[in-house]
Design brief:
By secondary structure, this protein is of the alpha+beta class. The chain contains ten helices and four strands, in the order βαβααααααααββα.
């Protein structure tokens, strides 16, 4: 029996990706399935698809952003998330910290890095496109900032992040958070219920997906 694959395409710049990151561990605990985190460039996906951020796309639409925030508050309450703060520097250029995520995986500190950067971005309200703040934040988290920053500038890391983004686009992604259960795509934090239900269904039924793999 082949292993079911659950993937999370993320960019630190998305508050909804942060909220998903905080909810995913509970889904993993309930289902026994571990999500594979895939760093992508949200700006790159926007360019490839012609998409825009909600702040830009909904600008000037009366009541729309107010409702989006209401849904966020409901999500926070539903999942007991109390640490979230709106980043005053949003939107933040995430290129360096996304390259850092790829570098962190190569250095074997991916989970620690991801937790630290998400916390700095969406709990501690830090300006995570400032090189010195990035360096200080990584050191505060007990990470080797110099090694990670140096590796993040390597051609290998840069190419891997671009390749991740291109593959995500080719599979149908247009933003973050995007989830794949094998080859089936789900977009947005509010699809996490569907993602969990699909995982449980496939585990119970050994469902065959589009590629013919038996779960």
């Amino acid at each position: 029996m082949n292993q079911l694959r659950a993937e999370f395409m993320f960019d630190f710049g998305s508050p909804n990706a942060y909220l998903s990151h905080r909810v995913i561990p509970a889904i993993e605990a309930r289902t026994g399935v571990t999500f594979d985190y895939v760093p992508v460039l949200l700006g790159g996906l926007f360019k490839l698809t012609g998409n825009r951020s909600p702040v830009e796309a909904f600008a000037g639409i009366k009541n729309k952003m107010e409702y989006e925030w209401l849904e966020t508050e409901r999500f926070l309450k539903r999942h007991g998330l109390t640490a979230f703060r709106r980043n005053p520097y949003f939107p933040v250029n995430t290129l360096q910290i996304m390259r850092g995520a790829v570098a962190a995986r190569h250095e074997g500190v991916f989970t620690q890095y991801t937790d630290a950067v998400y916390s700095c971005m969406w709990e501690q309200e830090r300006k995570m496109d400032d090189p010195e703040i990035i360096r200080t934040s990584l050191k505060d988290a007990g990470l080797d900032a110099d090694k990670l920053i140096t590796r993040s500038q390597s051609a290998e890391v840069k190419e891997e992040l671009l390749a991740n983004t291109q593959r995500a686009f080719e599979r149908g992604a247009f933003g973050s958070p995007t989830f794949f259960i094998d080859d089936d795509i789900y977009f947005g934090k509010d699809r996490l219920r569907d993602v969990e239900e699909e995982i449980i269904y496939r585990l119970k039924t050994n469902k065959t997906n589009k590629t013919g793999k038996t779960q």
